[in-house]
């Protein structure tokens, strides 16, 4: 597969299902080394957008190019092998050890494929990824015994096993306690430094869950982009209030974001 300059290029895309516009006139370009956050209220179209970027859904109109390949003209299964998709709701029922779960990222299956066994090099890479996500203590732990935060980090290592150029993170901090969320965000920041050409898109509703290494943001409301670009320009009190249709005041502290309801100034 060629390495194009743009990891994602979307031009004037509509996505219509059951006669309804889930995405309208979306244009977006993501380059290597960029880390985007995709923000929007419930039902805004975030998962729909992610399924298009993950080569799961086709647009109804317009063009989507992912890793240089136009959706509709490429084997979607083959393309998906080059995209790391982290969904904390992904089910793994087999009682595999963490290292084995990470290794299943090579086959993108919820269990070991019969008659397949990883090479010594692949096992070493799994261990390196596990360590880079701060999970080395848990390499031999069984999946059912892991906490949700540990599973989240292991799933990121699993997604990276196939050396993707694009990493999609679908609400990776959902359900994590404060310490687990902070560990996850630190692990993501470290990962991005370690793999400088990786591009990523993280979906969230919560500004507190945006890693400090985020470079760009795109805000969607009712399937339309209302703002996109450099994260510092896009995340403002005005744009976030519009995006969530609620008066929200935001602040940035040491690279992280805080959001709260904007209290009107007392009159007089
Ligand atoms: N196949 C479909 N046919 C019709 N409507 C759909 C279909 N799939 C999703 N929708 C609707 O499209 C809208 C966008 O859904 P999507 O899951 O992308 O939103 P979201 O921003 O990810 O929301 P959330 O934050 O709640 O997960 C929702 O109103 C949803 O009900």
TrEMBL record:
- Keywords per UniProt: ATP-binding, Nucleotide-binding
What domain of life does the UniProt record list for this protein's source? Bacteria
- What Gene Ontology molecular function terms does this protein carry? ATP binding; ATP hydrolysis activity
Name the chain's protein: Iron complex transport system ATP-binding protein
Organism, by scientific name, is Rhodococcus koreensis
